[in-house]
Amino acid sequence: MLGLLDFAVLSFDFGVLLGQQLRFFLHLGIGHLQLFGQGLALLQKLLGAHGGRDRIEHDADTFCELIQKRDVNFGKLVEGG
């Protein structure tokens, strides 16, 4: 009778141990995912939301427009108009 009780307690302890290990590995996996997500967020901040390309192209276009307006104004000044 005591042998059966020992096996029952052993099987219960083994079930608890497996549950704790599963929970541990689940938390470990979630922790790795959170670290990976934070790494991606830092990379996005470093590169900017769009890589900064749209703003640079937009600024370059604006700069070209200013140069063209300056050339037109200079041409009008030379013509006397």
Note down, in words, how this protein is organized.
The chain is mostly helical and 81 residues long. It folds into two domains: 1-47; 50-81. The protein has two helices and no strands. It has helices at 2-47, 53-79. The radius of gyration is 34 Å and the shape is rod-shaped. The termini are far apart. The model has no long low-confidence stretch (mean pLDDT 80).
- pLDDT < 50 stretches: none
Based on Cα principal axes, name the global outline. Answer: rod-shaped
Mean pLDDT: 80
Count of structural domains: 2
- Provide the β-strand percentage band: under 5%
Largest sheet: none
The Cα radius of gyration reads 34 Å
User: Helix coverage percent of residues?
Assistant: over 70%
Helix-strand topology string: HH
Q: Please identify the structural class as seen in this structure.
A: mainly alpha
Number of helices: 2
Distance between the termini: 115 Å
> How many E strands?
0
